[in-house]
Amino acid sequence: MPYSFAAGPARLPDAVLAQARETLFSRGADGAAPVERPFSAPQFRAALAHA
């Protein structure tokens, strides 16, 4: 029986989806969501350092 180790579709756990829903589209004090910020912005670099 051949095995396939290729990445395929997978479902994320509900807890991960809920956290992503809360944080990815929440507006900050400047009115921008994290997905709207440029990668060179200080807020993005702070989030990256925190991760």
What does this structure look like?
This protein is 39% helix and 0% strand. The chain contains two helices and no strands. The chain has helices spanning 14-24, 42-50. It is elongated, with a radius of gyration of 16 Å. It starts with 13 loop residues before the first helix and ends with a helix.
Estimate the global geometry from the Cα principal axes: elongated
Q: Which spans have pLDDT < 50 for at least 5 consecutive residues? A: none
Q: What structural class is derived from the secondary structure elements? A: mainly alpha
Radius of gyration: 16 Å
Keywords:
51 residues; mainly alpha; elongated
In short:
The chain has 51 residues and is mostly helical. Helices cover 39% and strands 0% of the residues. It has helices at residues 14-24, 42-50.
Topology:
Blueprint: H1 14-24, H2 42-50
